[in-house]
Every structure is written in structure tokens, then in C-alpha cells.
Amino acid sequence: MLHGYGTSLLEGAWITLCVALLSLLIAVLLGLVGAIAKLSRSRFLRTSAQVYTTAIRGVPDLVLMLLIFFGGQVAVNDIAERLGHTEYIDINPFVAGVLTIGFIFGAYLTETFRGAFLAVPPGQREAGIAFGMSPAQVLLRITWPQMMRHALPALFNNWLVLIKSTAIVSVIGLSDMMNRAGLAAGATREPFVFYGAVAVIYLAFTSVSEFLFNRAQQRLSIGVKASRL
Amino acid sequence: MNFAPIIEALPKYFTGAVTTVELLAISLAFGLLFAIPLAVLRTLHNPWLSKPVALFTYVFRGTPLLVQLFLIYYGLAQFELVRDSWLWPWLQSAWFCACLSFAINTCAYTVEIIAGAIRALPAGEIEAAKALGMSRSVMFRRIILPSALRRSLPAYGNEVIFMLHGTSLASVVTLLDLTSAARQTYSTHYLPFEAFIMAALMYFVMTSALVGLFHAAEARWLKPLLPR
């Protein structure tokens, strides 16, 4: 049915998954940094984190991606030229895609993590300090596990949005699932079949995520008393 | 930074922004129109009515908007049945396909938002309606829907902004929206930063306007419902 394009599509699916997972990693790191900045005492850090989250959330991801991909191209070559480098440097769409999506979702996760940090009762942290733990130990052993419990549902929702927005990386020419489906559709004149297959694979990604999330949710909620009405 | 060519291209940006707003308004209007009855069906206990709606939202919330747009714009042309039908003149137009896929997409999300609000309605409101002897249709019309729609305002506001950003995909299927204006300006002048920052600014203004609008709507319709 796929005229031998099945493996190509699956390779594309693997690239899509890599983009999604790597950008999630960047987003989580940026989100943590952003949340810590938003909760810090320094006004400069708080303001810059606020500008970051407000600006990113007001602009479509496609526009940001085009800005970073095409703008980055010009900026990198400009800098290289000033350093005396004469060859033209191409920006890899994979790198641009991962950076853009990570950067965008970092803004959303900043809000998530900020709320989650605030949801951990301050007594927990104080108790850790009273036991003589270092700040790093308090973060790793006390705050982090409890905060993740609060952050997980929102983190999961953001992941679902993130994995779907990987489709737009094909617009800047990454040879992902969408791109390969487009090529196969052009060659076989059966676009519905190939875009349908892409839809099914995305649906599989989101469904498997949902299953894993429910498992993780159960695990992280161990020790939480469930109240029933 | 060289903004002079961008200022010159501003009329193009403004026509693009108008297209973006039109796309957004049409898809939101149709999406909401179909979402309300579907949300009611989704909350009914009859599985023959609620399950098909659940399947619809599962599929359209689980796949990217870009894939849905391509399936409708490029995909449907594969079938001769579609090409011979009376729908074909419509489905040939990128404008119609974009509106259709955006409307279906926002409809799926809105169904879940409204259905969630209906399920989370305070039991007392429904009991009071029943105690007054209202029939089911009267109860839905006078009590459940007005209350649920007000309570979905915050989530629906997010969905509207999500959709505004989603309309930028229209530029991928050749429509001349705001993103498209920026892409054209970029390729004419080779000024990526200036061209896309201009579009980003305009999207940002539109987003802020929508956020303000929904804040006002919440203050008007939602606040009075909440406990003080």
C-alpha cells in the first residue's frame, strides 16, 4: 500500500521523535532556569524571564522557527565573516528545529515549573535545611520529587503540544516524516495515503505518551492520599 | 538592522494581517457552532452518541494541524470520487481547505473544553433545574449551556490564541496571510530578522488584544458566577 516508502516514513518518524525528545530536554532545562529566574530575588532575572515567556507565547511557532532558521543563517555567516572565515555556512534544519521548539516550550514550561515550585510547602525545604542538607541536596531530595508531582500533568500536556508542533520543522526542510510523506505523495500521486500514514504515526505517538503518562502519574502519586467525595 | 524596506512593505503586512483575522474569525465561528451540540452529545450517557464524538476529538486532537491541513488540501484530491463531486470547486481552493481544517481542528478542542465544563458543573445547579420541573431540553438551554459556556471562557481564550498562531500554517498552502507577507519580504530583501520580527510584533499585538478581550469577557460573564 505504501509502495515501498514504508521504511523511509519510519526513518522520518524516528527523526521526528528525536526532534521532539531533544527539544523536550532543552525545554525542560530552559523551563527550570526560567522558573528559578522568575522566583529569584534579582529584579533583572525576574524581568528577563517575564519578557521571555510573554514574548514567546505571543508569537506563532512557525514565525519563530523561520526567524531563527533564516535569521540564524545570516547571523552565523555574518559572525564567521568577521572572524575571517570565507566559506558559506549552512544551518542544519535539525539543529534549528530542535533549538526553536526547545526555546518555545521552555517558555511554557517556565510557567509550569514556577507553579510547581510554589506548590511545594516551604516547610518541606526548611525541614531539609534543618537536617543539615546542602541546597543541592534539598533540591534533589526534597523539592524536586514533590515538585514533579505537581508539574507532571502540565508537563504532559505541553509534551502533547510539542510533539505535534514538530510537524512544522518540515517547512524549513528537515527530512522528517512530513517531508518524506510529501516526497512519496508526489512520486505516487497518493497524498491521502501518505499523509494519512503520518497522521496514524502521530496518533500512535500521542497515545503511547498518554499510556506512559498514566503509569508515571500513578508512580509519582505514591504517598498521596486520594480523597474521594 | 535595516527597517526601511520593511516599512515600505507595511501595506502587504496589513493585508496579510486582515487575511489572518478573516481565517481566524471564520474557523472559530464554524468551530464553535458545531462544537456546542457535539459537546452536549459527548456528555450524554448513551454510548452510541458520545463515543463517535469522543473518537472525533481523539483523532483531531492527537494529530498535528499541519497534517490535517495537508490531508484535506492535498490528500482529498487523490480520489476521483472527490474530484468529480460538486464539492471539488470548493476543495480546490486553498482558502476553503484552510478554513475547513482550522474549523475542524478548533471544533475538536472546543468540544472537549465545553464537555469538560458541563461535567464539572456544580451538581446543585442541575438539581435546582430538575426541582423546578424543567425538561431536559429546557435545562440544557437555560441552565447547563449558559453556565458551562461561561465557565469555559478561560480555556476557550487559550484555544483562540492557539488558533491565531495556527493560522500561520496557511502560509504553507500558498495563502497570503501575515506570515506569508513576512516570507515574501524576506525573500525579496534578504532581511530575515527585520521581516520576521515585524510579523512577530503584529502577531504579538493581536495576541495581546485577544487576551484583553477575554479578560473583559471573563469579568463580565464569569466573575459573577464564582464564589466571592
What does this structure look like?
The complex is a heterodimer of chains A (229) and B (228). Chain A has a single domain (6-220), classed as Orthogonal Bundle (MetI-like fold), CATH 1.10.3720.10. Chain A is flat. Chain A contains eight helices and no strands. Chain A has 229 residues and is mostly helical. Chain A is 78% helix and 0% strand. Chain B has 228 residues and is mostly helical. Chain B has one domain (4-225): Orthogonal Bundle (MetI-like fold), CATH 1.10.3720.10. Chain B has twelve helices and no strands. In chain B, helix 11 (178-189) runs antiparallel to helix 12 (192-222). Chains A and B meet through helix 3, helix 7 and helix 8 of A and helix 3, helix 4, helix 10, helix 11 and helix 12 of B.
Number of domains of chain B: 1
On the 0-100 scale, what is the average pLDDT of chain B? Answer: 93
Helix content of chain B: over 70%
Major sheet description of chain A? none
Helix count from the secondary structure assignment of chain A: 8
Mean pLDDT across all amino acids of chain A: 89
DSSP, total strands of chain B: 0
What's the CATH C level of chain B?
Answer: Mainly Alpha
Low-confidence stretches of chain A: none
Distance between the termini of chain A: 52 Å
Which regions of chain B are unreliable across 5 or more consecutive residues at pLDDT < 50?
A: none
